[in-house]
Amino acid sequence: MKISKKNWKYVFLLGPLLIAAGVTAALVSGVWDPLTVGLVIAGAVTIALWLLYLSYEQSFWGQRSTQASTNALIATLAVFVILGVINFIAVRYPVRIDLTESQQFSLAPQTQQILRNLQQTVKVWVFDPIQNPQIKELLQSYKREGGEKFQFEFVDPQTPTGKSAGI
Questions:
Q1: Most buried one in 74, 105, 144, 149, CB count within 10 A?
Q2: d(Cα 43, Cα 49) in Å, to the nearest integer?
Q3: Which residues contact 37 (CB under 8 A, 6 or more apart)?
Q4: Looking at the DSSP assignment, which residues form a beta bridge with residue 125?
């Protein structure tokens, strides 16, 4: 059976279809077994064969539109990779910067020194029926600076004893 030239575009569609089937089967089953990996590989090979056919038959890679599209695709992928790396680093190593003129959201150097040099664990209970977000943010700043030696907990004084909103 010979595939005519007009049917080659349908051969290309088979590649992404096989890849999608393999990835979907792996996501549904939760396991990358030989069948799912085989489907993904078959899809990639089909796409590669289609690209080889295009380059052989139509001098596909020599066309200006193909080169421009390839450059745009590579630049887009590079931007996504760079953004992904930046996001990974930002999540892995969080840094807080207070850009206000009066350093309104930063702890005073004396407070930072006290929190770093705590000799024993300090636990703060805040008795408030509604957790004030400003107080919570301040206590979280203390916790970041003091580490495990500083702990805090919000307690609702209106609930029966033993029930609290621990942080």
A1: 149
A2: 10
A3: 22
A4: 153
